[in-house]
Design goal:
single chain; mainly alpha; Glycerol uptake facilitator protein; 2 domains; cell membrane; channel activity; Aquaporin; transmembrane helix; Aquaporin-like
Amino acid sequence: MAFKYSLGADELKGKTGTSLYKAIFAEFFGIFILNFFGCAACTHAKGDEVLIALAFGLSVFMAAMTIGHVSGCHINPAVTFGLLAAGKISLIRAIFYVLAQCVGSVAGTASLAVLTNGTEIAIGIGHTQLNPTVSVYQGLGFEFFLGFILILCVVGVCDENKPDSRFIAPLAIGLTVTLGHLGVVTYTGSSMNPARSFGTAFITGDWENHWVYWLGPIAGGIAASLLYSIFFSAPDIEVHRSDKYRQVTQNDDKEAAQIAKYPDLKYIDEE
């Protein structure tokens, strides 16, 4: 499998540039929604892991349905770096996406912090932290596999040679996020998204073990993207040459039969 990499300088100008800037804003908006509503669930979940899992999964589903056609709805540096490693996006687009994701995450978390300030309901702001019984390297391993399953799902449902799977892509990705939270939220907070954790770390000022939430998901995402591209990608969709010739022959036969049945049709066409 050949990988094509692009710097993407041409995306900064002209019609392509306009699309890039719309995509950057879409990434900002998408992760704003993710951090606002996902973390909002954390403020009153009181240990209800299912509630947290559904909130984050449904937020991703909603964002994908809304902005997927604009930016691809990465809203996650692990997704962006995974697709960059597979040559699916340009380097410049990847850089701008990650910046937009981090800023949008901070904005979403800050908005939530302002609205919940002083309320008796809110407990925390959904900041991801390692469970005291989990070591740094165990946490890194959990986050690696969280990023791995998420990006494996993303590249699988977005495979250009599997057009039918794109109809369920937003739901599949949202459910994968839900799965990750159901399985691992007790151990690491189930980030699987460096920008999501960046937003809460920035607002709370708690940067302890923050690197785990970047290295783990991104490494897992790159591994999943390359694994799928090399071993699991669907074969190219192409019509066999004999099928093309057969189609042409069939069309010619139909036209000949029609002319024989309606001889005046040929005369009208020639005029």
